[in-house]
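Researcher: Here's a chain I'd like modeled. Treat it as a single chain, no partners, no ligands.
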Amino acid sequence: MLYRSDRSSSRRTTPAPADVLAFHQSLADYAPTPLHDVPALAAELGLGRVLVKDESQRLGLPAFKALGAWWAIHRALQPDTEVLVTATDGNHGRAVARRARMLGLRSHVFVPDVVSAAAADAIRFEGAEVTVLPTSYDDAVLAAADSITPGRLLIQDSAWPGYEVVPQYIVDGYSTLFHEIDVPADLVVVPMGVGSVAQAAVTHCGTVLGVEPSSAACITSSLLAGHPVTVETSSTVMAGLNCGTPSSLAWPVLRDGLHAAVTVEDADALRASEDLVALGISSGPSGAATLAGLRAARDSLDLSAESTVVLISTEGR
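Model: Modeled as a single isolated chain. Structure tokens:
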């Protein structure tokens, strides 16, 4: 499934405040993540340069999610907060749980049962209470929201009407990733779950291609329909992208500013992951989906042998 925008200009929202980057730079484990130049991929795809933003080690965790979660916690934390609560399909929940432990707080993380046992155990290892639900990611988000009582703070990376302040903090937190990219790019390729990191990419970059699993294509389906839609999801190796409903904050930004969106199959994401690992870049299927998506959409994009493309690999293998 492929979507291309026919809009003549990209929507730009208000950039994240400058103190986001300053906050991240104040953290003990902060360092800019690598931007790998990969000539082999450029040659394969007939491009001038392909670079991979490698988020396999970010603030001591194997994914980029701490950038958003930790900034949101910093901004939203109240004196009476005792428990940080979230729903996750993996990396976001672990990031919330890690920060809770660092701050001496408890955490409670809701996960759908399609999340692997290893991912759930990694969250428990951070000290979180983990509730596994025989349901979808969307329903896990509802369960987390319904559990909020005094002293419990919801740190969710998806927005809906009435819950948009914390998700915007999370999107603002992702801005650091894009500030670190110091190479002018003709195209930035990002994976999409509920659309939050794609929202950040459209806000801070130029032309953006979003990539989703074909089995959880809520953003691409919404773009083709012209309005937000919820899709039924199933198991996918791209676990971090297994979301059925677009974020209400991301939707208008992506509708007006995303250049293109494409869906990919599990086999293509796995192949891309293996290819990146062979090139020395640790990338799980959710992160490597960007390479799979570029391969799928290459002939439909306005790219040339002089073009520079940046792939955002959001997680390690």
